[in-house]
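Human
Can I borrow your eye for a moment on a structure tokenisation matter? Give me a protein, with the fold worked out from its sequence. Write it directly below this note and I will take it from there.

Assistant
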Amino acid sequence: MQDPWGIRGPGSYTYSLCNALYDYGLDVHLVTNKYYEYDKLSHFKVIKIFFRYSEKMKTNKIRKIIRGIEYITNMTSLLRIYLNEKPDIIHIQWLLLYQFDFLWLKILRFILRKSKTQLVLTAHDVLPHVEGHKYRGILLKIYSQFDAIIVHSESLKSQVYNVFGESAKNWIIKVIPSGNQDVFSKKVKMEEVESHMDLIKRKSCGRSFLFAGIIHKSKGLDLLLQAWERHIKDFQDDVLYIVGKPQYDIRNELKFVREKLNESVRVSLGYKSDEEMFAYYLSTDFVVLPYKEASQSGVLLTALTLGKPVIVTDVGALPETVKLVNGGYVIPPNDSVSLADALNRASKVPYEILEKWGSEIRTRAVENFSWDKIANKTLKLYKEVL
């Protein structure tokens, strides 16, 4: 298993999958980030080679350059590992420099040409969310190098065929959903979670909503604030928490909050520990994902695993995931009026019904998105390509 990220959301996915495959009796070796966060929980072999220096640097142009150099160097050393080990399956979770990655895959195919090694890719995003169309050509070449491709929903499988046309008809494409985020309850220190919960002061008696995670333009924060302005006209006691690390200049959004939304919106920006994020999830009633574009979402799966109803837009695998567990409301993307209506609807749910609903959501999420089921489907795919 190959995952250069190995931390935070992507790391939890890869850890959970590796652990479940290990429980099925597979000899799993994970090649990942130097700062992989799940050592104490991992029963399988972990080889930490990626991003020794850049991972801990502040985000800037110098870090980007160093990270690129490290990635190329790390991937080159990985070729030697694969040549020596000759694994049956190389399952790749993320590729980060597409032009280089295509060349790397060609070299990997060449040096393993006498072995029976099969290459599997999990395409978490069929195309990048920012100017994805620009990468269609190189991704067509990359995807053609794999013996099988995993996507997380039927809608994403359809997107593969729509984007890549006739070429994709020759690919083995399997739908295997992403799994629940129960790993966080094992990883976090509950005394720290409770300490953070004490600091999240809920002074109002209204409903509380959470917008969380890495904040890209595609996440729809601007639409959420427009909808919130409409919402609080009738629900003045409600509170919106905006928690996460912006990846673009959000000064306009913050100005809008200061000038129009006042105390109804509470903002906490920057990197958050797992314990702090866990506390926000547990302290709020609903989680809002007004995304303009998405494939799947760790925020969504975390919310459902913790029994939090959600409001999501009809993009990527989000609606399929929510409907499977009756986990909340699905609205059209890029529609602040529909979003405001959904917020209003959520605020009207009585607390006793909300509590029961949350318990049912958690039960269904843990069952439907169990890693045992996901590992079983993944194992069947491995056997199919071998």
Remarks:
- The mean pLDDT is 94.
- The first helix runs from residue 8 to 23.
